[in-house]
Amino acid sequence: MILSALIKKEAKEILRDPITLGTAIFLPLVMLFLFGYAISLDVEDITMAVYDQDRTQESRRLIEVFSASGYFIPRYYLDSTKEIDEIMDRGKAAIAIVIPPDFSRDINSFKKTSLQIIVDGSFSATAMIVSSYAAAIVNSYSMDLMERYLEQRGVQQRHLVGVVPRVWYNPPMKSVNYIVPGLFAVLLMAFPPMLTALAIVREKERGTIEQVYVSPISPPVFILGKTIPYGIIAFGEMLLILATGTLWFQIPFKGSLLLLISASLIYVLTTVGIGLFVSTITRTQLGAMLLSLIVTLMPSFLFSGFLFPIATMPYMMQLYTYFFPARYFNDISRDLFLKGVGLEYLWGNILFLVIYAAALFTLASMRFKKKVA
Amino acid sequence: MERLIAAIKKEFLQFKRDRMLIILILWTYTIEVVMCTMALSFEVKNLHMAVYDMDRSQWSQRLVEKFTATEYFTKAIYISSLKEMDSLLDSGKVDMGLFIPLDFSTAVQKGETGDVQIILSGTNSNTANTVRGYATAIIEGFSREATKEFLMKKGMAGEFPEVEPRIRVWYNPELKFRYFMIISMIVLAGIMVGMIHPAATMVREKETGTIEQIMLTPLRSHEIIIAKLLPTITIAELSLIPSLLIATVGFGLPIKGSIPLFFFASTIFLFTSMGMGVFVSTLSRNLQQALLISFFILFPVLFLSGTMVPIESMPSAMQYLSLLSPVRYYMEIVLGIFLKGVGLKVLWPKLLIIFTFGAVIFPLSLLRLKRGMYK
User: Would you say A271 and A189 are in contact if contact means Cβ atoms under 8 Å apart?
Assistant: First the structure.
């Protein structure tokens, strides 16, 4: 009875602030679209500069092979090495190739020649992909040369080793299929805890919390009254992302929907639990805000395996990731979406979340009681 | 002038009292920079592969050695069934599987094409893409070698036409992801502190009602803003020093360009970020709104800036949108100064763009602030 009154009061306060409510609902959507479209390391349409010192049919053919690959767009044709400096310094092209003056002469006299490839290494992850693509293109061009040469001599010879790539779990290798399931873990962690923490700390700052202390409301009821409305918002957020992800981005969903929804309910409890905990150790809204950023948004975004793989982190940092529930939920969500595994694989992670949530709530209501006494 | 100095004194006093904020700003510029630079990487190195070799011949062994000879693949685990491959890939213990079928060497010796399979887990499509690139290049190189050997054996000795790719990496020859990450973290700290701190302090004054008292003083609105922003820019500039030390001494980031230029560019960038912060504060009534609106602006501005993933990887619509993010230009400037060693001659257009953003947003927020006063 008291609980429903508290929830009503909290709901009223939320509804009175349309900016907050609007942000809580729309920001996750904005992020979904940003991540769905903008966050990918897929390397396509790389702008290329060409310094062709040979200017023959053969050299044009090589450039053609680059542009036909679909990965490179030759955009700048240069006349000096100085121009390469210019173009690369200004970041106008990510790769430049230099075709030596005796390129076609060497090829026609069956000699070995070389091609200089200059790659901008500023973003090393892409630079590695770009250089391996470029090497692969030159290799296959070289292979063609050999085949042509043999054909001229009446020998039929195909390449000896072929590759068949097989991709399991996410065959189209679309980044979005991998990003969106991970995004649940981030978004549910980003706002619900902060809003919960602020809702309580605000009462502290304004002094209205004293009224709660003197009222017959018991700590667990007060806590529930504060968290249930934000839990509902969080849950709504999650349904919205789920619907947009599957309908708009057409992410395949292989696992059990019921399992995902129950796991996210538990996860939502841990997230608002963190907000609750933050509220018990901070006194000002600004402090609560900054602390929740450090314990929620940052780790869920950077240290959950959402974007940056955990396996490449140093050992100490890998241990650090175990402290935050986002890592566990990220695994659950990705496994359910991409692999379709069941409870028999996921129970460990789910159990951890349950314990985490229970611990947070007990801790928070204990700290609360102490204050009342 | 005197009243401006008094106002500035007041702001510094207030700032000094807020220890939590000072600690957090320093934290953003130092500990966070260290943690992220150490931990976060898109580098795909030290890969483990599972090898299911049904052929067990000299040829298949040579192929596996080609993989382990590179700096990318450090460990090959031999297995004897596809089921094992599944569990290894599934648990992430290996990044790639190599399947060599039974008749591989027979085909190669006959001069026919023997196909091998590489098996990747697409759950992290970025890694899978990179690994596929490496593996394909390695196998293609091996194929060339094998073909050449085969032809030599058949008596077709001599030279073949051949093009060798000679790859040189500029600006970051060792391809260290850390260099990028640390620059990116310094840039991010700049926008976060530069935008959120002014927004928060302005709104707090609104919330506590003290803004009315300030409005009653003879201070003009631009004087209020100058006084409010001086502590932010001071701490943000000072914090750059420890983070620069961390970057250069701690992580070996080379400084090829000019440090004064870096500070000059940072000042202009902070000016623009603070303009955005003040603008946010005129839109919001309380701290919570200020923070949420900041996020609404920060997320697109950050993720379209090339600080997380390169802009070239985005679809072209997003690339055009990224032109609207001032962080994009600052990132390019800082990368240019540190890694490329370019100077004002190359960077001035970007600086001008950042300054223009600030020059537009500041008067706009000043206007809104004034209007708020007379309401």
Answer: yes
Residues B370 and B225 in one domain: yes
Kindly state whether residue B200 falls inside one of the protein's structural domains. yes
Distance, CA of A53 to CA of B166 (rounded, Å): 16
Give the residue carrying structure tokens 């070698």.
B145
Q: For position A373, what pLDDT does the model report?
A: 45
Q: Do A168 and B120 make contact, defined as CB atoms within 8 angstroms? A: yes
Nearest to A302 by CA among A278, A319, A321: A321
pLDDT digits (tens, 9 = 90+) for B250-260: 898 988 889 99
Mean residue pLDDT across chain A: 84
A97 phi/psi in degrees, rounded to 5: -115, 145
Residue with tokens 């538990």: A266
The alpha-helical segments, DSSP class H, found in chain A are: 2-15, 18-38, 57-68, 81-89, 103-108, 124-152, 175-190, 192-206, 209-214, 219-247, 257-281, 285-292, 298-302, 315-321, 325-334, 343-372
Q: Domain A46-152 maps to which CATH number in 2.30.330.10, 3.20.20.80, 3.40.50.720, 3.40.1710.10?
A: 3.40.1710.10
Within 8 A of B140 by CB-CB distance, chain A residues are 136, 139-140, 143, 163
Q: How far apart are the first and last CA of chain A?
A: 24
Indicate whether B194 and B121 sit together in one domain.
Answer: no
Q: Which of B118, B153, B188 is the last residue of a domain?
A: B153
Q: Do the bridges between strand A72-77 and strand B114-121 make them parallel or antiparallel, or are there none, so unpaired?
A: unpaired
**A334 reaches B (C-beta below 8 A):** yes
pLDDT confidence tier of residue B351, bands split at 50, 70 and 90: very high
Chain CA centroid to CA B191, Å: 14
User: pLDDT of B73-111, one tens digit each?
Assistant: 888 999 998 888 888 887 778 888 999 999 898 888 888
Tell me which of A83 and B160 has the higher pLDDT: A83
User: CB count, 10 Å around CB of A18?
Assistant: 10
| Euclidean distance between CA atoms B127 and B94, whole angstroms | 12
Chain CA centroid to CA B207, Å: 36
Collect all residues with Cβ–Cβ distance below 8 Å to A33 and sequence separation of at least 6: none
Q: Hey, which residues 184-213 in chain A have their CB within 8 Å of chain B?
A: 191, 194-195, 198, 202
State the smallest CA–CA distance between residue B15 and chain A in angstroms: 13
Strand partners, A164: B117
Q: Residue A129: its pLDDT value, please?
A: 82
Q: Name the domain count of chain B.
A: 2
**CA atoms of B340 and B321, how far apart (whole Å):** 25
Kindly state whether A125 is in contact with chain B, defined as any CB-CB distance less than 8 angstroms. Answer: yes
Tell whether ipTM is more than 0.85.
Answer: no
**Residues of chain A positioned with their CB less than 8 A from the CB of B48:** none
Q: Of the candidates A325, A323, A330, A290, which has an alpha carbon nearest to the alpha carbon of residue A308? A: A330
B contact test, residue of A71, A124, A195 with most B CBs within 10 A = A124
DSSP A296: I
CB A128 to CB B44 under 8 A?
yes
CB contact under 8 A, A168 and B291: no
Identify whether B246 is part of a domain. yes
Amino acid found at B31: I
Q: How many whole angstroms from its chain centre is CA B42?
A: 10
CB pairs under 8 A between A and B: 370
| pTM for the full predicted model | 0.84
Q: State phi, psi for A169 to the nearest 5 degrees.
A: 75, -30
Distance in angstroms between the alpha carbons of the first and the last residue of chain B: 27
Question: B52 in the Ramachandran plot: left (φ > 0), alpha (ψ -120 to 50) or beta?
Answer: beta
Tell me if A107 and B336 make a contact (CB, 8 A cut-off). Answer: no
Are the beta carbons of A112 and B126 separated by less than 8 Å?
no
The token pair that represents B61 in the structure block: 């062994």
- Range of B22's domain? 2-40+175-374
B200 near A198, Cβ under 8 Å? no
